[in-house]
Design a protein that fits this description.
Elements: H1 2-18, E1 25-27, H2 36-43, E2 47-49, H3 50-61, H4 69-74, H5 83-86
Parallel strand pairs: 1-2
Helix pairs in contact: 1-2
Length: 94
């Protein structure tokens, strides 16, 4: 694994050298996921891989519910006091 990690770090360095304005890296190959952290630390950039994507999709499909248990039991809508949901337009989102 050490040789594979070194190859990925070298490829990352070459990519960053060719594209100095690089803001993030996406590892498309499932075999690269174990090296995402090392590459992120090496490049000092966010690195996204299929494992992280696999965790992200369920969160997007069913976002966390921040209502209290009491609000949920009362059937209060998902976004409590959210002017965008209630139709009111005031504040920074107006």
């Amino acid at each position: 694994m050490a040789a594979a990690e070194q190859d990925i770090l070298e490829a990352g360095s070459a990519l960053k050298k060719r594209h100095p304005d690089l803001g993030a890296v996406v590892l498309e190959c499932t075999n690269m996921a174990p090296y995402a952290r090392a590459l992120s630390e090496h490049l000092q950039l966010p690195v996204f891989d299929i494992v992280g994507f696999h965790q992200l999709v369920p969160v997007g499909l069913r976002p966390r519910d921040f209502r209290s248990a009491r609000q949920r039991a009362q059937g209060v809508a998902g976004a409590v006091n959210n002017p965008l949901r209630s139709g009111e337009r005031e504040g920074p989102c107006a």
